[in-house]
Design goal:
Elements (H helix, E strand, L loop, with lengths): L1 H23 L31 E5 L6 E5 L2 E6 L16 H11 L3
Antiparallel strand pairs: 1-2, 2-3
Length: about 110
């Protein structure tokens, strides 16, 4: 019975020491919060200062590999990928398909 009392005493002391050791440690302090980000104020543009957007549209043709270029609704030409390297970005130009289409439109029935 003495052994049981001795073991119980050691267990109680060990449990108490663990509880006290766990409570005695302070957690590290939290880092300070960063200051709020400064959001720049957007300048408002009145209706008289707004300009009309310069609208360009590109329509690729998967059958020919050409890209039709339209500027403000009007057909300008095509970009075929065979443009010289000095053109960066490549400029749209008329192609054979454009010439055939113009001839077909000008033909009288």
């Amino acid at each position: 019975m003495r052994k049981l009392a001795s073991t119980a005493t050691v267990a109680a002391i060990f449990t108490g020491a663990c509880i006290l050791a766990g409570c005695g440690i302070k957690p590290p302090p939290l880092p300070p919060e960063p200051p709020p980000a400064v959001v720049p104020q957007a300048t408002l543009i009145g209706p008289e200062e707004q300009s009309k957007p310069d609208e360009w549209n590109l329509f690729p043709d998967p059958t020919t590999g050409e890209v039709g270029v339209y500027h403000e609704g009007n057909y300008v030409g095509s970009v075929t990928g065979n443009e010289p390297a000095s053109e960066d970005p490549p400029l749209p130009h008329p192609t054979e398909a454009d010439k055939n289409r113009d001839q077909n439109q000008n033909a009288t029935p």
